[in-house]
Amino acid sequence: MGMDKVGSESTGEVAISLRVDSIRKRFGAIAALDDVSFSLATGQRLALLGPNGAGKTTLIRCLAGRAKPDAGTIELLGQRLPPSGGRERLGLVPQDIAIYPDLTTRENLVAFARFHGLRGSELRCRVDWALAWTGLEDRQNDLVGGFSGGMKRRVNLACGVMHSPHVLLLDEPTVGVDPQSRQRIFEMLDQLRDAGTSILLTTHHLDEAEQRCDRIVIIDHGRVVADGTLDALIGSTIGTSRQVRLRIDRPLQRPVPPWHVGPVVGSLGADSRSGDELLQTRVDDVAGQLPGLLETLSTAGYGVLNVEVHAPSLHDVFLHLTGQELRD
Amino acid sequence: MIATVMMVCLRRLVHNRIELLLAFVVPIAFFSIFAVIFGGGVGAGGTPSIKVVAVDTVRNEPSRRVLAALRQTGGLHFIRDDAELDDTAQLPGATVLRDPASSAVKPLSESEATAMVRRGTAAMAIVIRADGERSVRAELLSDSSDQVAPQVVAALVQRALLTTLSATLPRPAGDVWAGSPTGVARADLNGQGPRLPPARLPQAIESTDDSVLPVTATLPVDIATAASSPVGVAPPLSASPPLATAGASAFDPVAAVVVTDVLGENKSNPVVTMYAAGIAVMFLLFGASGGGGALLEERENQTLDRLLTTGLTMDQLLIGKWGYLTLLGFTQTTLMFVWGQWAFGIDLYGHFDGFVMITTVTAGAAAAFGLLLATLCRTRGQLNGLSVVVVLTMSALGGSMVPRYVMSESLREAGLWTFNAWALDGYDKVFWRDLPVAELWPQMSVLMVSGAIFLVAARVLAIRWETE
Lengths: 328, 468
Fold this sequence. Notes:
- The complex is a heterodimer of chains A (328) and B (468).
- Chain A has 328 residues and is an alpha/beta fold.
- Chain A has 2 domains: 16-236, P-loop containing nucleotide triphosphate hydrolases (Rossmann fold); 242-311, Alpha-Beta Plaits, CATH 3.30.70.
- Chain A has 9 helices and 15 strands.
């Protein structure tokens, strides 16, 4: 569909932990990844967003060495990665609960620590740290299969960081958990970031990306369509103006004339036509322009029942870039 | 509502191919397998024959005539005899022992024949001995783990004796026989014991022709009934008809045939050993396929993805699982035999070296087979369906469910494509035939090679899981 990438910004002199350059991956006639490029700075939290089937999981699998790209390169801490292997400093937390439900919390942590090469006192220290980190010290000898979804997610997360990876890949780490567990999981991720771990996560919770991530990459149809901070993306897509919605006491009889706030001329949007009771427009300066709008409506003889002001959000950016069409 | 519940169940069944397979195809498949085993139907390859060897210790005219008559009997397959030596018969399929050094024909000795029965090369040995100057008698060396062959061969030998000698020899005064409830003459090592009731003999003789042989029973059956009916449910003993109705008035063939068990004489409960081995091998296969299913479960819930991003390689993963399944299978089988020793008198302690060897390679091969099945499938549901079909088929053909000696030759040969048969042959050598462990090399070799092939095949199939 050929959409240009928006919001790109320079990483300046920031150290790059993970660099993806022109990755391509096809499954038959379908291009799952089409010239995907981005980078992840050290200690950064990057949200990888996209509709279902956009290529997020394929990208994660390529980064983790579980899928072989047809073209392109991946660099981890400045070292080019082979298609598989060589990812000792990378951690993966799959979308599913990829742990052993018939092992206890401690047994799971010990097993994955050993798979990651930890032995002896280092292993014991790391397991103790993970138990404290997940808040599951008192459940360390219980079988994971009997845990709640949030507790399983925390064990799932801990098993992916037992080897203290420099870069952590998380595929929808909070899917299916309650708000309290989500909060706890992001607190855990905050601690990892504070310790210098770079985090790349996919999610459909746009508020998580908006509030918890430093940078956002939006991918659609296998291509990166946006890359930058939230403000940069908003500025380069829908703009920073606020959306204003007003409900008046009777249908609009005739077009409302423009109003003036200094040199700025305000007007109702083209969507507000005669017969409407719900009017909407966009204003760049809420404090300066909104009083003029209300006064104009009052002068025209309409009573204003309700006023809503919406700041531009990642949700708006996302729909703006990927469209309203259903993706199945 | 009830109709809706039924409709939902039906639609779910229609959408589930594995369920459909298990519900409709597997029962028919197993019915067919057992029909072939017991009914001599499709693929049975005609009448099952009993592998025998003959030793003529007399080498006179009557003995040659008796053996010649036996060679004409389709129910017996002489795998080695002295036909060419005697130059009295040229038999298709009969092999003659030749000395490799001198190229001279060498007669089969009684000790060699006994060894062949002990090793399982022959089901029975027919030893013709002198009985006075003009007559002969027969001693049948048997392996009592085969509970059918002694009865059939005894009847055939009695017929041969009767038809070849009765016209020239006087009948002894009185019928001297000790009635065995089975109707089969059994003797101890001294050659004494109960013999076939004369009352049953005519029917047995008439029925044991070249086309029909009773090989279907797993328990000793009345020879006369077995020879005339598919499955031996013995009728009550009938009153003895005059022996003359069989056309024999001067010779008692019953007294002239004794069956000597050369294998089971000192064993406490040998048959249980074979059942234990059969069950153990079948459950080794089920256990291994279940263990292989854990691999599919790990793949389905992305644990495999996670594991392969650690320092773990697919080689290490498969070998680790194979080692675990082998150890589990070995422990499982050992526990079964320990229980068998305690509860049923299996002599595990006396055969421990052979048991360890054959159990180790069997468990290893079963573990590799389980991994192969798992890597062949895409889901655990597929594996469950496939493993039920494959394991039960292998167990049926390989002798875990019914002894292979009751099967036709073609089915016995088909059974050799299963490693159940090789494993059970190994246990048979260890526990029944008391052979030294060096004799296990064919079974050990086949099981080890097949295990290695299964493991390599599983590894090759697992490549698709490493990277996409």
